[in-house]
Amino acid sequence: MRLLTKFRTIGETPHQLTDLVTARHFGYHHVLQIFLAISIILTSILLASCTSPTLSNIYLLSLSYENQPGPLHNDSTQLNPNISSTFSALAATSLTTHIRIGFLSFCLSDATATEPWFCEHHAHALATFIRGSSSDGDDPLNIVWIAKQFQEEGLFSGLWIAAIILMFACLILLFTFPRWRNSSDTDSLDQGIKLFPSRTVSQWALAIAVLASLCAFVSAFWQHISCATGAAMVRSLSYGTVNAVVGPGAMILAWGSVCLVIVVAVGLLVMILSIGVLEDLLRGLMWK
To answer: Domain 14-286 is of which CATH architecture?
Structure first.
């Protein structure tokens, strides 16, 4: 949107306006672009969790055998209270330390392995690795299979990918916003300067940012609920012999990305409303 104003009418001299324009090299939309870029980076790291030993600390859920399972509380709903001892006896023979689950990969730490973490995209490769490194085929409670089932049935990365695409599209639209221009020509300053971005582009950027916020929020909420529920069910169904831990790093990345993209959406809304108010104010000053 091109806004032509007579600057002397609103009390600004051309030289004062030139100083103002020169000082404003860093615009409001640049802050929004930085937030979007950080959000994209956080989401990308989240999706790349457990794809390499370097990213083994970024995981959604960790499953490991307990060396000394604690005693279970007696409950009248347990019709077979002795089953826990059976699970404890099986888990005591395990050498597998634990497995970490990401959106696209798994990382395994095995007591017989030379490397601290062995990461693969497919759980079948982990099972083959365990069979090759241990003569006993060491995974008595099949936590590798449990990890595979959890990833296939409890996780979904499609909305995160959609959020990244939408955030990138919003970032591109913000690059089209006009910058402050410095002109030494007094006449050109008297004619006006392009202060505000296009209303259409701003509204499209806002719509995309809101949609990205919804995708990111639903994904983070889904991830949080799935991991917390999965951890509770694994601990209960294994009678305390398998320890399940929700990855704190993945949760921080997920909700951090959500907060940043929501800030961008709110920032765009405030910008559009503020520009509308300024347009009305400047039109009123021009007619005086």
So the answer is: Up-down Bundle (1.20)
